[in-house]
Amino acid sequence: MNLSSTVDTAASYFSRELLAWYRMSKRTLPWRQNREAYRVWVSEIMLQQTRVDTVIPYYERFMNRFPTLQALAEAPEPDVLKHWEGLGYYSRARNLQAGAREVMERYGGQVPDDKAAVSALKGVGPYTSGAIMSIAFNRPEPAVDGNVMRVLSRYYNRDEDIAKPSTRIGMEKLAASLIPEGAAGDFNQALMELGALVCTPRTPGCLTCPVMIHCAGRLAGRETELPIKAKAKPPKPQARLAAIIEGTGEHAGKVLIRQRPDSGLLASLWELPHVQLDEPAVKPRGRAAKLAAAAEPPVERQAEDAAELLQRLQAESGLRVVARRWHAAEEHTFSHLHWMMRVYVAELDTGASRAVWPAGLRQAGALPTEVAQQPAIIAAESAAPYSSAESSAPNATDEPDGYRWIGRNQMRDYAFPNLFGKILYDYWDATGVEEGGV
């Protein structure tokens, strides 16, 4: 048998056996109930960089709220973001809604059975267009993601770097050549399923693989070595300070949140007021380092942090925020950034005979009696206290533009990134405020 015949045999075997395996053992997933294009589209966008098990409850909640493309297109964006909350990568939700509105305007609310038209929709790249065209319309279009490139790299023992665009293009051509006639949707889903369940990144289950006999990577002993992928640049660590600003008077029991700008990272989502520090940040590695990073800082560091919060938030918003006590250390990784955040419970200084005193004076017992009896309000060491009389701070009952006072029961009305949602719910739990309170 010549090389060409061997390749043809391996290809036909792969397509036939993989398709049979999928049809016999495929998972029951909510987006597989039917092949309606809108349902396929939503699921594929959600599944980008997110595990199936994670997506299922979010998909069901999203589809219950926006059961049709028209419902999504006509919904207010904050409502869409709130129902996407927890999935991350919020630009996916914005692009999905923008694409839905395009379909309403251009195609009467029906996703077109046309690859060029689908590919032109906002947020729809080659993989998503291939998935929609093949699964919803059974068109012989490849849908190549990381799972698929891993499977094909191993099966054909290919050394190309899958991080390179040229490799993806080659993989798309290869995947297209393998699609059995009339079975594009099932075949593409079979490829994804194999990569997700069997041909996994670190420990491929070769003995249970339906196409193991002709897998060139396995035969060469390279199944754990492949695919080849250049290491991405690690996320840049950033040190940040955040304030849980507690309300008083009419806002007692509430905290102050703010909305991010309508473009850029986490656009339009709500968060706690926070600032980036100039200090170098190093992501902790190892159990001991992580425990140390999560521990309450020494009082000197807390004093420095309080001063930074006071000065930087006042410069940004005009609010004089004074730290009252340590809350927690939190961190969150984005594709390009790693936030390391120290969080304090704070209040607004309204200028009512209040000063933020150096921590060393309090420690030394050198504060006036009436000040020493107040809750701890600390600032960096200096020769004199930071006098609140120097500021024309807004009244504590005011809401600067883009800010809101909310209680726990209002959390459902605002979309928060995972990081700030976690901080706030931990805070409410620690203060004994249950769901429905305040």
From TrEMBL:
Keyword terms of this UniProt record: 4Fe-4S, DNA damage, DNA repair, Glycosidase, Hydrolase, Iron, Iron-sulfur, Metal-binding
Presence of the UniProt keyword Manganese in the record: no
Annotated TM spans: none
DNA damage found in the keyword field: yes
Record domain HhH-GPD: where: 46-197
Reaction catalyzed: Hydrolyzes free adenine bases from 7,8-dihydro-8-oxoguanine:adenine mismatched double-stranded DNA, leaving an apurinic site
Known EC number: 3.2.2.31
Known cofactor(s): [4Fe-4S] cluster
Cross-referenced Gene3D superfamilies: Helix-hairpin-Helix base-excision DNA repair enzymes (C-terminal), Hypothetical protein, domain 2, Nucleoside Triphosphate Pyrophosphohydrolase
Gene Ontology MF terms in the entry: 4 iron, 4 sulfur cluster binding; 8-oxo-7,8-dihydroguanine DNA N-glycosylase activity; adenine/guanine mispair binding; metal ion binding; oxidized purine DNA binding; purine-specific mismatch base pair DNA N-glycosylase activity
Protein's GO biological process: base-excision repair; mismatch repair
SUPFAM superfamilies: DNA-glycosylase, Nudix
Function: Adenine glycosylase active on G-A mispairs. MutY also corrects error-prone DNA synthesis past GO lesions which are due to the oxidatively damaged form of guanine: 7,8-dihydro-8-oxoguanine (8-oxo-dGTP).
Family: Belongs to the Nth/MutY family.
Protein name as it appears in the record: Adenine DNA glycosylase
Protein's organism: Paenibacillus herberti
